[in-house]
Amino acid sequence: MMNKNTNILLLTILSLAACRSTSTFPETDAAASTSSDTAISITANGQQSPIDTLAAFYGAYTNYPGNPLVTRAYKDNSTLRQYMTDDLVTGIDEILASFDPQGGGYDPFVCAQDRPPEFSFETLETSGSQATIRAYAGFPGTPATRIDVEMIRENDRWLIDTITCLGSESSVPQSPPPTDLPSEPGSEWLRYRNQDYDFGVDYPGGWIVYETTVDDPRDIDPVEGYVTFSDQDGPLPVALVISTGAISEYRLVFPKSASAQTLQTAAGYQVLSEEQFRGEQYYIILHPTDDALRVALRVISREGPVDTRLETIINMMLDSFVYRNS
Fold first, then answer.
1. Residue 29: what pLDDT?
2. Domain spans, the chain
3. Other C-beta atoms within 10 Å of 10: how many?
4. Distance between CA atoms of 2 and 50, rounded to whole angstroms?
5. What are phi and psi of 96, to 5 degrees?
């Protein structure tokens, strides 16, 4: 039987924070704090506890110069690689390979777009050569993201074997799911609200939401940003593509396909259903009064039609979509 304890370590990496602030971390009975200049070994993974090892890894990872995913440093850099099993590296490779080069994606080590400056750790379970650690990663003033890390002990060293992204505890307010929505195991549906473009959509509570803004002034692409919905296994089946400007500008990037159809959601919005980019399905939800705003629901499926379960989820997401001021 695994034993639970409340051993907590708070790791604050000040070199990545612009100012000192407090993130929304869970309250604990006992905590110790340290910073990036505290003496935590990030090169010698020896007789450390699972939490010490994990804190050392994230200290090295968040302070790594450049992007360790782009340079594949997580595979080649000895300081980072010493903390990981071969299975973890293979799993990270598969997650990165699943990302669409045109948008979406996240850092699977920290379950966010950017490397957070603050972490806390809690031992959930430990038994012999196995341990489960709950990490809380966050930015000042924002809800912490929960990350479950499975660790194993090999040759007197603790190694990270799997990383599971759980999302934040209060990142999206819950709302009652519409009737007959398909359920994810053990989860309720949540409501995503975009304040900048004033729309909302429901999604399965077991999924994780990532927002990406496209703000390069040299980019003539009409896309303003992406909202990617992924399940906990890593694949990115669904994304919202936010675009502004005339439809003629949109068509320069997303030409109308020969198979395009016009649909209608339960809320009465006109939807253009068409295939784009090697078989991806786009549902372009037109704004009823603003011709310069549209949101496309993109289904990332390049290996044939989606299964019945995902198709049902897509239909329910479309019917739940609402432009708030329309």
1. 27
2. 8-168, 189-323
3. 17
4. 14
5. -65, -35
Distance CA 206, CA 70 (A): 28
Residue-wise pLDDT for 166-203, tens only, equals 765 543 333 333 444 444 444 578 888 988 889 999 98
pLDDT mean across residues, the chain: 74
- Using an 8 Å Cβ cutoff, are 200 and 193 in contact? yes
Assign residue 128 a region (left: φ > 0; alpha: ψ between -120 and 50; beta: otherwise): left
Q: What are phi and psi of 196, to 5 degrees?
A: -65, -40
Q: How far apart are the C-alpha atoms of 138 and 171, rounded to whole Å? A: 11
Helices (H), 168-307: 247-253
Beta strands 8-12 and 33-34, pairing class: parallel
Per-residue DSSP letter, 18? S
Q: What is the pLDDT of residues 262-300, one digit of tens each?
A: 988 888 889 999 887 666 788 999 999 999 999 999 887
- Which residues of the chain are modeled with pLDDT < 70? 1-47, 100-105, 141, 167-187, 215-221, 232-236, 277-279, 301-306, 326
Predicted structure pTM score: 0.46
* Cα dist from 58 to 12, 80, 121, 136, whole Å: 10, 9, 11, 11
Q: Is 75 helix (H, G, I), strand (E, B) or coil?
A: helix
Tell me the CATH number of domain 8-168, given options 3.90.870.10, 3.40.718.10, 3.30.360.10, 3.10.450.50: 3.10.450.50
Asked if 8-168 and 189-323 have one fold, the answer is no
Neighbour tally for 90: CB within 10 Å: 12
